[in-house]
Amino acid sequence: MSAKKMSSMRRNYTVECVVKYIVFALLLVVMLFPYAFMLNKSFMNIVDINNSGKILFFPKHFTFANYRIFIDYIGYFVNSFIVVVINGLLVPLTSCLVAFPLARYRFKGDNFMFTLILATSMIPSTVLQVPQYLLFVKLKLYDTLASQFIGAFFGGSGMQIFLIIQFMRAIPKELDEAATIDGANKFMIFWRIMMPLCMNVFIYIGVGVAIAKWNDFQGPLIYLKTDAKRTMAVAFYFHFGASGDISLMTHVKMAMAVCMTIFPAILFFICQKQMIGGVKLGAVKE
User: Fold this and answer.
1) How confident is the model at residue 224 (pLDDT cuts 50, 70, 90)?
2) For position 231, which CATH number holds?
3) What rounded mean pLDDT belongs to the chain?
C-alpha cells in the first residue's frame, strides 16, 4: 500500500472520529441540560426564582437552604429505602430459585411451566390492578408498607426469570456433576456454585428493580393512604404537586428532585461494572 493511500486513510479516520465525538458531545449536552437546569435552580433563593422578565440559568444568590427540605422528608426516605432494599434483594433471589430447576434439570411439565411463566410477561399490568387491589384489601395489606414488597417473596417477573434461565443454561453442567460427586445436594449446588456465577445478572436485576421501586409512583399512590407511610415520590407529589400551581416553591421542588436522583446515581456508579462489564465464566478448563 502506497504512502499516499495510507495518509488518505488516516485523514478519513481522523475526520470520522472528530465527527463522531462532536455528535456524541452534542447529544450529551442535550441529555444533561435538563438535569443541569434543575441543579442550578435548586441553589437559587426565592428572589432569583421569582425574577420577572428573565430566566436565570445560574443563581445570583447561591444557597443550600433549599436542601433542608430533605431533613423534613427523612421519614419518607426511610419508607422508600425499606421498599427498595427488600425488593432489590428478594426479587433476584426468588427469581434465581425459580429459574434454577428450569435451567439445570429436566422434569415432567418443565416446558409447560417455562412457557406459562414467560406468558405472564405479556399480560398488561392494568388488567391486574383491580383484582390485585381487591386481594390486598382482603388480606389487610391496604395502607401498609408491606403492599409494596410482598410480591418480592414470590419470584420476579417472567422476563427476569427468563433472563436468569438463559444465563444459567450457559454455565457448564460439568460443575453440577463434579459437585454431586463431592457429595453436594441440589441446594448446595444452587447456593455455592450457581449463585456466585450468577452474581452479575443478580446485581443487574437487583439494581433495575431497586431503581424502579425508588421511582415508583403508581403503586404507593394506590395502596398507601396514610401520609406517614408514603414513599418519597408520592409524598413529594402530595406536598408539592397536587396543588396544581407549578410556580409555587420551585426552588424547593428542584432541590427535592435532585435528592430523588442521588440514590439511583450512587447505585449505578457502584454497580456499573457488574451491570455493563459482561460475563466471564472460566470455571471449566479444557
Assistant:
1) very high
2) 1.10.3720.10
3) 85
